[in-house]
User: Fold this.
Amino acid sequence: MIGTSVDVYLNLHKSQNGKRVYSIRSREKGDNYGRVVGHSSELTLANCVFVVGKKGRERVRERHCKNVHAVIRGTLVSLSAASPGTDDDYIGYCPYQSLAPTFYQINQPTFSAATEFSQATSAHTVVLSENAVYAKGVA
Assistant:
């Protein structure tokens, strides 16, 4: 699994007691393409793109039902997470908070209506931990 192309998303059914669990979906051609190949509460990705499906996001906003429509796409580097550095940006996504269908970059690990944020489309490295997602080299 390490070194392969994957999509990663927050698994709301497996996450409990404030600890996040992420599903890892394969993007490698073959029998596992598009299938969940694992779960982890910590992982690191490289050469990432933040992807939001427009139709899935619209369904969530219209029906207030959850579905997988936002992923972080990249190369799986590790099933562990390093501590955030002082220059790392926290990354988040909420289909209800922003009119733009994008991930956002903020300077704190929680989002509120008063939080100032900018759009994030890609990052050199993304670290997903059980309580936050942060990135280096955000564009």
